[in-house]
Automatic annotation (TrEMBL):
Listed name of the protein: Peptidoglycan/LPS O-acetylase OafA/YrhL, contains acyltransferase and SGNH-hydrolase domains
Top-rank taxon, per record: Bacteria
Residues in Acyltransferase domain copies: 6-317
Coiled-coil boundaries: none
Pfam families tied to this protein: Acyl_transf_3 (PF01757)
Amino acid sequence: MKNYFYGIDVLRFLAAFLVAGFHLGYLNDIADFTPVWLVTWFGWIGVEVFFVISGFVIANSANGKTPAQFLRGRALRLYPAVWFCATLTLIVRSFSETDLLPAYLRSIMLIPKGPWIDDVYWTLAVEVGFYCLVFLLLLARMFSQLSRAALALTLFSSISLIILATKYGPVGLVERGNVLLARHGCFFALGAWIWISTTRRLLPWERIALTVAIVACIGEIYLRGREFLPAGKMEWMLSPVVVWFAAVACIFIFSRPGKPISEAASRRIRTLGLMTYPLYLVHHIVGLTIERHFLFAGKWFALVVSVLSAIAISWIVCALWEPSIKRLMRRDWNFTHTS
């Protein structure tokens, strides 16, 4: 049975909450939420936290799996929620837009090239890129060489970020290379390094590679931060770096053995972890739509209602929808395997 890291699930939910705050309380034209910009403008850092967590969690879940088992586990985790959330987003957008079917189909099939039914799905293309890398390692029976793959990913992403920062080289390829992990590979590599450190002591060259990955991640955060930083607020740039650093420190701490918790607390925390993915998928377009419809009661009330609604929908997905769909998928797979 795989190790389960409770603290990381809590951290994952908080990261999703940060992203929701960013879209609903900063990056929108619905209302002026300037008073809370100090804590909402850097909510995009939740995505960078997600990527580090994915590097750690996927390495842990892939360890000891066959390629088929790995793919099955990823399908069970990703598809049921995206089918529900993409359909809900399609319904919401259909009231004011047309010609949404191609984007919807790309979304429910997790095609790594957009446009998708919601712009936030771009991160799934990045995730799929890392899944492909891990799958290839499993297929080649080289998962034990994960450290070398993490090194290659660290170097590739670092060079890509240098190209992006200096504007010298194939900048367009780096900017469009989500599935190739050109820009974000350093985050997944860092997560993989942290996981490897839970299985054995890192070698000197691995510790150096981990340090390079951290520096590359900070560089990417700086480049991303410049895109969203409010005008004249350069002093705010430190905030996302500090929050991300704190999150990475928590991942490292939570990955170590801790005190056992009660079964009730375990269930609640696992539910939070399962809610993270649908919360991320529905908070943007669905959340903004809810926020817009409650503006009549005041912008702060609308903001709170939109966030709470997104959380409620995510609970419905993980507690009611996903278990039923997963049972059907498992039953179909078992039938196929025994036919």
